[in-house]
Amino acid sequence: MNQTSPALVAQDAVRRLPRWALWLLCVAYVVPGYVGRDPWKNADVAAFGVMLDLAGDSSWSTWLHPGLMGIPADISALLPYWIGAWVLQWTPAWVAPDFAVRVPFMLMLAATLAATWSAVYDLARHPGAQPVVFAFGGEAKATDYARALADGGLLALVATLGLAQFSHETTPALAQLFFATLVFAGLAGLPFRPRGAPLMLLIGLPGLVLSGAPSIALIYGGVATLGLLRPSADHLAPATRRRALVLLGACTLACALLGWSTDLLHWQIATPASDWQGARALGQLFLWFTWPAWPLALWTLWRWRHQLTQLGRQRHLGLPLLIAGVPVASAVLTRAGDRVLLLALPALACLAALALPTFKRSAAALIDWFTVLFFSLWAIVIWVVWISLHTGVPPQPAANVARLAPGFVPQFLWPAFVAALLATAAWIALARWRTARHRAALWKSLVLPAAGATLCWLLLMTLWLPALNYGRSYAPQMQEVKHLIGEAPCVQVHGLSAPQVAAVRFHGGWTPVPARSLTSCPWLLVDTDATASLPVTVNLNQWRLVGEARRPTNREDNLLVYRRVGAP
Fold first, then answer.
1. Which of 3.40.1350, 2.40.50, 1.10.3470, 3.40.190 is the CATH number of 475-564?
2. How far is residue 515's CA from residue 306's CA, in Å, rounded to a whole number?
3. Which residues 6+ apart lie within 8 Å of 291 measured at CB?
4. What is the pLDDT of residues 278-307, one digit of tens each?
């Protein structure tokens, strides 16, 4: 009997969430954002450029020190770029390369959702997480209770606002999220999965190192190893505990050697923001990035507070706090910010799920009505802007888009329109179902937040996708450059950032070469911010300015186009 548990859950409250509905929700969340869009600035297109560079170079030194234009970049990750380059090398010519590199990352996101469900399920089976046993029976069965909490944890993760953008980019941030979630699921499953859990750890910890988070991997492995040194740790049998201890200790040591040998292990501690502006920005980041998981997680800590004094034994609380606490501390003490905070979301979703069995009906109703109003309002805004772009009614949204993205021409895409229409109809039906009935299901309070977040993300990635591509990619600017240059074997570049260099290669189709290079290219692209250093780099007598290419949505992001004197 679990006397310290605040969970009072009857068997009727742990009814199964239909698998088809959960799968459909996950597909509707994962696929949009990976299909039909261009590489976006800045990190997304820069990472894609590195993958393109690696795919055309078989040198080991290049693969161990990836970069652009043959110049090693300041890159703290390897594995995500290797994965993208391998995919490009094996992709048929008829498949768009930017879509091809997204496929493994799309699978990583799907696996992250599955690993989060597994972690919450195993932690919910811990004796300390189980609900109070009723005097005359009728309490929830352990397996059904764990499944209901796992469904709630997955819904909480999908509902988290900070997950949407970064989880749909082909950057090391998503790889770090995937491998960190594998570590979370592996540690959670040690008492229940003697084969699967160690395998997750053997993949997750080295994957974190090679994805650019070696310090976090070492902290996870080191703290978990120390935790296993306690004789009663994790409710493991002595033999199982010894095997897990040896595995974790050896894997952590191997990760340290791996990070050191690949020169990925660096400490980047920075002084936390002490001024009001810095503290305010950090507070706003935590407020919106982890919403709505953080208020539910705080409620969990309050309601389960009697178990917080024994975190070593109450692993359903101690493990999520460890997994979430390290990225949260890193976000405060380093300059990684939101991308490192991404790693805390699965564990925060687990803590949010533990709040579900402690809710009263009034609190659940408040969440439902707030969610319906919030996401319905945003869905209406997205539809109104789209209708205005295509019909001119009402006129103001279209005028705002024309001011922010001059030159943008709306495109009507039938598949996107149908997908958006079906998603909106599903949302209306779900909102009516949820607000009209009072189901006792444990996961009910997170159905609308997850569905609402998925709806808005899908609408953005369908109805607004042409406008977002126009505003967030370099394609329009490269089209202007191509109008001036046409076809060329190569172009020399000066002062361009890594995203700009990647755009020159992908959107323009030209081979970028540094301006200092001895290669004689007929054209030279110069960022306007680097014009002061241009005379030191090249002989301006050999070049003639022929035009300027602007990014329509950024007046300061312009390129000067020079032609070599005497070039054909």
1. 3.40.190
2. 65
3. 160, 161, 162
4. 778 888 999 999 999 999 999 999 999 989
